[in-house]
Amino acid sequence: MPTSAGSPRSRRAALLEFAVLGLLHDSPLHGYELRKRLTTALGIFRALSYGSLYPCLRGLVERGLIGERTDDTGAGGRRPRITYELTAEGKEHFQDLVAAAGPDAWDDDDFDVRLAFFSRTEAQVRLRILEGRRSRLEERLANIREASTRNRERMDGYTLALQSHGEDFAEREVRWLDELITAERRAALDPGPAAYDDLDHPSAAPSGTPSGTPTDGD
């Protein structure tokens, strides 16, 4: 996800903005509903606090990407709730973001968030991100295997078990990505159901990877 700086904090802030815009793309939401969807559907935001969410929302409002609507029907002395909705500029900005497919989109957290909004991403962009992610994982897998071979005699049983776990996890994700890439290519040749609908096990994503787009039921 492009940012103005390379620090982890700025990367996370950019991902949060992207996710907020994506969730507001379909319908307006209150801050509470936004946080609930972010924390339940996207692992990177599992511990997201209002102290991080509301500055993000204020920044998006100031940039004209989202608007605020106050609900004046608060009962029992409750403060009116603010509903956030995407502006025309926000929709255009979100489309620019989902059209990006650079190397950042292949990283762990970025890929998970991008995958959650694949249904709003063009097919060729989805395929490029999936192929880039697979290449990144294949490189990681090769490094794990090389380190395991080189250092096996110096590792104790626990370290070997951890190494094996990392290798198994990377292998599973590479196989899963192979399935998604095959489905995307098949769908490009024979348009019809969504590519994910053709998979035998669409929810069999490796642990920690979202298996679909956040919905109202999340």
UniProtKB/TrEMBL annotation:
Q: Which UniProt keywords apply?
A: Coiled coil, DNA-binding
- Name the species this protein comes from: Terracoccus luteus
- Please give the residue ranges the record annotates as the region Disordered: 188-218
Q: Does the keyword Coiled coil apply?
A: yes
Regions of biased composition (Polar residues) lie at 206-218
Q: Which Gene3D superfamilies match?
A: Winged helix-like DNA-binding domain superfamily/Winged helix DNA-binding domain (1.10.10.10)
Superkingdom in the source lineage: Bacteria
Domain Transcription regulator PadR C-terminal residues, every copy:
109-182
Q: Where is the Transcription regulator PadR N-terminal domain?
A: 20-95
Q: What is this protein called?
A: DNA-binding PadR family transcriptional regulator
Q: Which residues cross the membrane?
A: none
Output the Gene Ontology terms for molecular function. DNA binding
Coiled-coil segments on the chain, per record: 120-147
